[in-house]
């Protein structure tokens, strides 16, 4: 039996971008684009109507931006996966969307085969972020973090949340925050890859997080990485 093609909604304010995405995603190994919208103000309505597996969400839109739309969609339909579309690979809005539960992000000039792969990964419940991208985003957050009392309070709250982890889970979380892949964590901590995956799943469940980048951001908020 053929594997079911993921159902996708595209939300982007540029008609040419939407058309290009439809072409890239619609190949024999692609996905089914079931609907599209030109602004985030229709996100909840269109997701409710078509129940897609994945929403490709633009960030900068005129009426309701992708950040607010991501939050609204995930509040209304938590099982929907959001994949953020952006022009830049280091964007404050992207970081906030990931904090809000988006499963990853792709650049608008991503090669078609990689874009299709990212949608399939997210539809399957995985994240679409490479270790290098994780490190890039976390580095941006760390370098732009507020100082003084605000940073101290964020660090305290993050450490309190991380206190529920076991010592081994905390080691894995720190490695994730450095942008390490499961294979790299396996070699570093002398664990099997399936064991690393199990630890990551446990960390996500205990902390109520959606993806590895949220783990990384929390660890950096707690200033548990050298250089923070």
Automatic annotation (TrEMBL):
Limits of the HTH luxR-type domain: 158-223
Keyword terms of this UniProt record: DNA-binding, Phosphoprotein, Transcription, Transcription regulation
GO BP terms: phosphorelay signal transduction system; regulation of DNA-templated transcription
Keyword Metal-binding tagged: no
Lineage top rank: taxon: Bacteria
Record's keyword annotation contains Cytoplasm: no
Domain Response regulatory: start-end pairs: 7-123
Molecular function GO terms recorded: DNA binding
Any Pfam family: GerE
InterPro entries: CheY-like_superfamily (IPR011006), NreC/VraR/RcsB-like_REC (IPR058245), Sig_transdc_resp-reg_C-effctor (IPR016032), Sig_transdc_resp-reg_receiver (IPR001789), Tscrpt_reg_LuxR_C (IPR000792), WalR-like (IPR039420)
Modified-residue entries (4-aspartylphosphate), positions: 58
Protein name: LuxR family two component transcriptional regulator
Species of origin: Ornithinimicrobium humiphilum
């Amino acid at each position: 039996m053929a594997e079911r093609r993921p159902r996708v909604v595209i939300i982007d304010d540029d008609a040419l971008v939407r058309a290009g995405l439809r072409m890239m995603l619609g190949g024999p190994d692609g996905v089914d684009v079931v609907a599209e919208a030109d602004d985030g103000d229709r996100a909840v309505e269109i997701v409710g109507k078509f129940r897609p597996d994945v929403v490709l969400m633009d960030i900068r839109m005129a009426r309701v931006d992708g950040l607010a739309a991501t939050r609204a969609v995930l509040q209304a339909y938590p099982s929907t996966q959001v994949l953020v579309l952006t022009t830049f690979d280091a964007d404050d809005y992207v970081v906030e969307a990931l904090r809000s539960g988006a499963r990853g992000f792709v650049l608008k000039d991503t090669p078609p085969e990689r874009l299709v792969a990212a949608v399939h990964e997210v539809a399957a419940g995985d994240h679409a972020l490479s270790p290098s991208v994780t490190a890039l985003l976390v580095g941006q957050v760390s370098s732009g973090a507020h100082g003084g009392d605000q940073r101290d309070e964020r660090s305290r709250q993050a450490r309190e949340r991380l206190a529920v982890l076991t010592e081994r889970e905390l080691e894995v979380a720190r490695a994730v925050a450095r942008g390490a892949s499961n294979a790299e964590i396996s070699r570093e901590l002398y664990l099997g890859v399936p064991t690393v995956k199990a630890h990551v799943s446990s960390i996500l469940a205990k902390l109520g997080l959606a993806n590895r980048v949220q783990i990384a951001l929390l660890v950096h908020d707690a200033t548990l990485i050298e250089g923070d």
